[in-house]
């Protein structure tokens, strides 16, 4: 199945049925056409099977000690940090992709990890008793809530005040949406309209994402000459907008369709 269609089918099902590893690899398949997603899933199976002991400490030692997974502090903005296949190959990545690695290896080992989406950073929590926070970007460093507050303060200063609800787990679709938001931002900054288009196309397929981002998608589609797709995107967005905004979207779609003649 086409990776876009497979991703759409995956994320539009029930939240409980969304596989994070599969979703993350389908994102990567848009950067690497022909990527064998199922083979990459098998690599995660093998990575988990090689863990000597299926415990929190065992996983932490296996991934961050023996295998040396770590955050890419030398080139944080490298798009490869956002692709799970590259993280497996290079053993470096962003906080969120390294967290996906821990979540998925942990799931295979029967360990109860959840993702914690701090503002500007991403960590995981082992939900056994007692709960333990872990930062995959910092080579599996153990954290306290105060450490998380300090991290938020270091990124945002007084602009964002840390609150305990920032330590609430986030769902699978929210993690995938955040990964795609990172990519969209990166592609926009570098002027990669083709990349921004597919990142937006996947991101707007996720039910929780604001439908107004369809306008951004239409703009990216028009910029690469996909006028029919852009018009269809705007027409779909119009059905979700108030009357005045819907009329503007439809009018914009008509102008794009006129460019097809």
Please describe what this structure looks like.
With 261 residues, the chain is α+β, with helices and mostly antiparallel strands. The protein has 2 domains: 3-170, no CATH class; 210-261, no CATH class. It contains 12 helices and 7 strands. A 5-stranded antiparallel β-sheet has the order 6-5-4-3-7. It has a two-stranded parallel ribbon with strand order 1-2. It starts with a helix and ends with a helix.
As a whole number of angstroms, the C-alpha radius of gyration is 20 Å
What level of helicity do the residues show?
Answer: 55-70%
**What's the main sheet like?**
5 strands, antiparallel
Distance between the termini: 32 Å
Give a short summary of the structure:
The protein is of the alpha+beta class and 261 residues long. The protein has helices spanning 3-11, 20-31, 37-49, 56-66, 84-90, 95-108, 145-156, 172-190, 193-203, 213-223, 227-238, 243-258; strands at 70-71, 92-93, 113-116, 123-126, 132-135, 141-143, 169-170. Helices cover 56% and strands 8% of the residues.
Attribute tags:
261 residues; alpha+beta; two-stranded parallel ribbon; 12 helices
SSE topology:
Blueprint: H1 3-11, H2 20-31, H3 37-49, H4 56-66, E1 70-71, H5 84-90, E2 92-93, H6 95-108, E3 113-116, E4 123-126, E5 132-135, E6 141-143, H7 145-156, E7 169-170, H8 172-190, H9 193-203, H10 213-223, H11 227-238, H12 243-258
Parallel strand pairs: 1-2
Antiparallel strand pairs: 3-4, 3-7, 4-5, 5-6
Helix pairs in contact: 1-2, 2-3, 2-8, 3-6, 8-9, 9-10, 10-11, 11-12
